[in-house]
Amino acid sequence: MPLQLQSSHITDSFWSHYRELVRTEMIPYQWDVLNDKADIVIEKERNDDTIPSEKSHAIENFKIAAGLKKGHHYGWVFQDSDVYKWLEAVAYSLSIHPDTQLQELADGVIDLIGLAQEQDGYLNTYFSIEEPERRFKKLAESHELYCAGHFIEAAVAYYEATHNEKALTIACRLADCIDAHFGKEEGKIRGYDGHEEIELALTKLYNLTGEQRYLELSLYFLYERGTDPTFFARQRAEDKGTKAVIEGMSHRQLKYYQAHLPILEQETAEGHAVRLVYLCAAMADAAYLANDQAMLEACRRLWNNMVSKRMYITGGIGSTVDGEAFTTDYDLPNDTMYCETCASIGLIFFAFNMLKNEAKAQYADVLERALYNTAIGGMALDGKHFFYVNPLEVRPDSSLHDPGKSHVKVTRPAWFGCACCPPNLARLLTSLHKYVYTVHPQQRAVYTNLYVTGTAKFELDNQSFQLQQNSELPWEGNVAFEVHADQPVAFTLALRIPYWSGEPALTVNGEAVPVTVQEGFVLLDRTWQTGDIIKLTLPMDIRQYSAHPLVRSDWGKLAIGRGPLIYCAEQEDNGAYLHLIRVQPHQQATYRFDSELLGGVGTIEWTAERQQIKAEWDHVLYSSVATESYVPHTLKLIPYYSWANRTPGEMQVWLHKA
Predict the structure, then answer these.
(1) How many domains does the chain have?
(2) For the segment 398-453, what is each residue's pLDDT rounded down to a tens digit?
(3) Are strands 557-562 and 565-570 parallel, antiparallel or unpaired?
């Protein structure tokens, strides 16, 4: 039997805290929100009167579609996906912590979804309730296949966790309905959804069921995209509806949907950031499953453009609020950007699927960067407040009074009118164990992507073995592995050397091993026995990062990181007007762990200086005679993910250099 990963479990104190927070706080809280039982204020993501924000109504929509209640659909047309992502998070949580009561609740939701499904397998509460005659006729904005994809992903996860066949049956009927309506055959729709997601879901359904049609349908959607530049326009022209499915979408260019070119011809990361990374994640998975080298090469091109020219240091993507989109190379503003939480989650999906194709540490480095910074930064420490947008610089007055910065929140709201991010984060955190390792059977190699305490069980040549990993990340760089096997087993253990590490030290059973790095990994190829211990020390120096000189927003500035974490300055620690602080790059910074601060975080202090605003500036806006005067300032930095959990105030990642 070729090398396989059988199971993975996380016991890491840092990540177990987050996963427990999802189980005990996020899942129950989000259930109350979806049922309109939470006493909260739902905020708009930005100043836009068309955003529905009175309530969620998501579960109520299913009851109406199922015929259990009378009424109208409320909320975004893609509201169903909030329920599906909640269900997927529940599935992963149940796989970690069996919970009879929670499973019964989820089973009831699946029963409700089954009642809302139509006879031919179609499933979408908006179109079933309000406009059944417009099914699949406004795909640029309808999100029908997007929602379908999220249910299929949830059903696959739920079956794997509980072996509940009802959810899987609903998913297969839904996929079969889509297969009956889309394709190149006569009478079928030669098109695709405006928001990618079904493509990724179908690869997962294929993996579970082995049904080749599902992989072929995924490949059809991928390769059809961008081949007919008139498809969305023709659907709009033929649509008999009297109102928009989503207001304000008709002006969007094809780049917004990644439909401006066939996927093999796309060279740059374009359009809505979440859509792009969902597309790329699907491309990478389909390339892996179908051994499609042309598609893999297209993935590499899009990856390289995105991470080398269009990604923030925190792993955020999306430079503008207009379309939640990419703009141009090196256009990375810090205070008007978007950096949606979902976009970084999608980037993690893309990175992991690339790791399945090729063992290159650059993918794991980006996965780790997005995970430790933007992804978990999207949630408050209480598990009940969330960021949709993850800025790198904030001034409360600007967010309040500048219409162009209404999307840049100073504190995390309790919920959003467009609530895609909270349940998306919940399903990522509960499935984190899936991202720690990848296996490459032909190499008989286990690749370590993340350093997270836990156990993983593998099978090779009809023999099982286990790796016990102990990690002190993100605060210290000490990692150890212990092998457990009934008999000696020959395989390669590949250890990632992160981009942030100093010169690493490596021992096997106490003996030093030379560190030879290949594509970012150290390969330990040997016959392993029970009790073998591998220790890896990754020095965690405080690092000063500079941006490419063409990133105008960061020219003359630096950012601070230690290990996988990027740090920021907050007004709470440094006073107002953070832009008046400048740092001397040669000054020595000091690190210490503060167990009492923000649930326990590492802090960095640095001798800096602050410009004084002297009396000569009173009632003066511009001056040709004023002189600059600075006083010493002890700059205190905290991990970026932990900002906005205290008194609201300014925040800044990039600091001026003296």
Answers:
(1) 2
(2) 999 999 999 999 999 998 888 899 999 999 999 999 999 999 999 999 999 999 99
(3) antiparallel
Domain range for 550:
542-657
- What is the model's pLDDT at position 48? 76
Domain-embedded: residue 456: yes
Per-residue confidence (pLDDT) for residue 289, from 0 to 100: 98
Q: Which of 537, 569, 592 is the last residue of a domain?
A: 537
Taking 80 as the threshold, does the pLDDT of residue 116 lie above it? yes
Q: Is residue 561 domain-shared with residue 500, that is, in the same domain?
A: no
pTM of the complete model: 0.97
User: How would DSSP label each residue in 13-78?
Assistant: HHHHHHHHHIIIIIHHHHHHHHTT-S--PEEPSSS-TTS--S---HHHHHHHHTTSS-----S-TT
Query: Distance (Å, rounded) from C-alpha 136 to C-alpha 138?
Result: 6
Same structural domain, 552 and 650 = yes
Q: Are residues 457 and 507 in the same domain?
A: yes
User: Active-site residue numbers?
Assistant: 324, 420
Clarify whether residues 555 and 632 are in a common domain: yes
Question: What is the C-alpha separation between 468 and 533, in angstroms, rounded?
Answer: 9
C-alpha count within 13 angstroms, C-beta hemisphere, residue 162: 27
| 376 dihedral zone (left: phi>0; alpha: psi -120 to 50; beta) | alpha
pLDDT at 528 over 90: yes
Final residue belonging to a domain, choices 537, 565, 584 = 537
CA-wise closest residue to 483 among 462, 461, 464: 464
- Give yes or no for residue 46 having a pLDDT over 90: no
CB 645 within 8 A of CB 570: no
Residue 135 lies in a domain: no
Residue 466 is part of a domain; what is its CATH number?
2.60.40.1180
3-state percent breakdown (helix, strand, coil) of the chain, nearest 5:
40, 20, 40
- pLDDT tens by residue, 353-406: 999 999 999 999 999 999 999 999 999 999 999 999 999 999 999 999 999 999
H or E element at residue 92: helix 80-96
Give the pLDDT score at 179. Answer: 98
Q: Examine the domain organization and report whether 562 and 505 are in the same domain.
A: no
Cα(143)–Cα(132) distance, rounded to whole angstroms?
14
Amino acid at 33: V
Residue 485 lies in a domain: yes
Looking at the structure, tell me whether residues 521 and 550 fall in a common domain: no
Q: Which residues pair with 544 in a beta bridge?
A: 560
pLDDT at 49: 74
Query: Measured between alpha carbons, how far is 475 from 228 in angstroms, rounded to an integer?
Result: 51
On whether residue 586 sits in a domain, the answer given is yes
Note the pLDDT of residue 41: 85
pLDDT of residue 10: 98
E strand or H helix that includes residue 400: helix 396-401
Calpha distance 18→379 (Å, rounded): 10
Q: CA 589, CA 129: separation in Å to the nearest integer? A: 60
pLDDT over 80 at 536, yes or no: yes
500 and 557, same domain (yes or no):
no
Looking at the fold, whether 559 and 524 belong to one and the same domain comes out as no
Q: What's the alpha-carbon Rg for the chain, to the nearest Å?
A: 25
Supply angle C-alpha 283, 286, 290, rounded to 5.
140
- Give the model's pLDDT for residue 248: 83
Alpha helix (H) ranges present in 291-374? 293-309, 341-357, 361-370
